[in-house]
Amino acid sequence: MANPLRILLDAVLPARCPACRVIVDGDDRFCAACWQQLAFITAPLCARCGAPFEHDMGPAAECAECLATPPRYDSARAALAYGGPARDVILGLKHGDRQHLARLMARAMVRAAGPLLDPAARPLLVPVPLHWTRLWRRGANQAALVAAALRRQTGAELALFALARTRATPVSRGLGRAARAKNVRGVFRVTDRERVARRRILLIDDVLTTGATAEACARVLRRAGAAEVHVLTFARVVRQG
Question: In this structure, what DSSP letter does residue 208 have?
């Protein structure tokens, strides 16, 4: 039997596509046009950074960039290529005060993570932190919102404040890899070494761009004794060619 309250809410506040906001027939569902634009990242991909390959190179193959300069993290996985509707969802969570989008993002990230979330490995979810000044302006840390949604969906342990950002940094939009790395050098510190030590860390963020922030976080987590550091994001920038 239909729930009268649900019927009323659907009539007054119909479900909308999380990207373009047109009315759809259920919560957290993309419209057909946006769904067709989503670029899911699946195998074959780089075993380290998760960048997609055009051809299957084998399950342990790494891209040329990772072979030349191995990242500090053990692996990175993302659900989608950044752009189009995926970008709209991220911006909706980050700047549009649409915190419910964290639930949709987390669901996609669970699929991308696969065995990284194996309960037997006791994964610890650690969101990339914001500096308090940016947190005050934005009102919420999108990485923390997604990490909390992942905890609810998987039961994995969440260490919301295991990492701290010690100083404010300029916005990195438009910066190249080297400039981004310089921008976040020495910015992060571990606040709970006992909780991090000997654990599999899943570093949670909304998007992986150049990997500079992930590298900086992984560096201090390793120094604090983390056994593994894996990066898990909703989307990642995919360079053509």
Answer: E
Instruction: Report the candidate in 169, 206, 173 with the shortest Cα–Cα distance to residue 186.
Output: 169
Global pTM reads 0.90
Burial group, residue 167, by CB count within 10 angstroms (0-12, 13-18, 19+) = exposed
Distance CA 163, CA 196 (A): 10
Q: What does the domain layout of the chain look like in residue ranges?
A: 15-236
In the prediction, which pLDDT does 184 show? 74
Answer yes or no: are the C-beta atoms of 122 and 199 closer than 8 Å: yes
Please write the tens of the pLDDT for every residue from 172-186.
666 566 666 676 777
- Averaged over 33-41, what is the pLDDT? 97
Helix (H, G, I), strand (E, B) or coil at 102: helix
The alpha carbon dihedral of 204, 31, 173, 46 has a sign of positive
**What pLDDT does residue 9 have?**
46
CATH classification number, 15-236, choose in 3.30.1360, 3.40.50, 1.10.287, 1.10.10: 3.40.50
What pLDDT score was predicted for residue 167? 85
The two structure tokens encoding residue 115: 């065995």
Q: How far apart are CA 154 and CA 132, in angstroms?
A: 28
Q: By C-alpha distance, which of 188, 183, 214 is closest to 48?
A: 214
Report the alpha-carbon distance of residue 235 to residue 117 in Å, rounded: 18
Confidence of residue 6 (pLDDT cuts 50, 70, 90): very low
